[in-house]
Amino acid sequence: MLSEIKKTDLFWDYYLKWITVYKQGAIRDVTLAKYFMTQKWLKKLIPDLMLKDMNRINYQQLLNDYAKEHERQTTMDFHHQLKGAILDAVDEGLIERDPTRKAIIKGKQEAVKKTRFLNQFELHMLLTSLKLENKISWEWFILLLAKTGIRFSEGLGLTPDDFDFKHQRISISKTWNYKEDGGFQPTKNSSSVRKVQIDWQTVVQFSELLKDLPRDKPIFVNGKVYNSTVNDILERYCKKANVPVISIHGLRHTHASLLLFSGVSIASVARRLGHASINTTQKTYLHIILELENKDVDLMMRSLSGLS
């Protein structure tokens, strides 16, 4: 397909073919959808631009136009999704020089972020407000995510066989495709396949809840699952406990934040969360890491002052 591309072909059409050849079937559907969305923006912003005319000025103008309606990080993602296709076009002689070189990434000012995590007291108030009965419910789902930090789709993909009560751990090896028609699917990346330790209280609670359930069936899935439904339940309990309203994903941030504040190393938190790189953990929780570094400085100064 790409062998038939000519320099005079439209750039957005080349990019669509490039996605089909290099990305379709190689990445998760949710990631592939982002590439197709990028292609739609190309068709909107540069509908008549031919491959041969893609130079540094045109590329920078494309980024600038995209940045008018998007935050800087989103523009950066847009740039990264285009760069691979453009470098391949350069290699094939369809574009003379790399137009992405020295590209400047702009973007709208970031919107005010909602509260992403709770502190230890707030989480305690939330969890004690949960109505936990002797059967599986979304309340138990909320408790489990708060105590493990696993992703929403990972929690939905859990079966009783994934619980190793003897060794106090849960095996994360799959997710549930709740965004489409359901069914098990692979984890976000290879690093997401992991074993997550759980406390003895969670062991006692879930060993009783799961004893009569089918061993290989998802615990929390019974029909179509909507992220918004579980978020609404969590919001109701946040309000009931008089704590900031967070999302289901905010439970993951809460879990990681509490571990970091408790002195757990960044490397250990990264492994527990299933991050592909420790850099992801550092970037996501930079504000906490900086706060902890400031505490470390105070501690070091107090220790040194005692030496005189």
From TrEMBL:
Domain spans labelled Tyr recombinase: 113-299
Record key words, sorted: DNA recombination, DNA-binding
Annotated GO MF terms: DNA binding
Domain of life: Bacteria
InterPro entries, sorted: DNA_brk_join_enz (IPR011010), Integrase-like_cat_sf (IPR013762), Integrase_catalytic (IPR002104), Integrase_recombinase_N (IPR010998), Tyrosine_recombinase_XerCD (IPR050090)
GO terms under biological process: DNA integration; DNA recombination
Entry similarity comment: Belongs to the 'phage' integrase family.
Protein name: Phage integrase family protein
Lineage: Bacteria, Bacillati, Bacillota, Erysipelotrichia, Erysipelotrichales
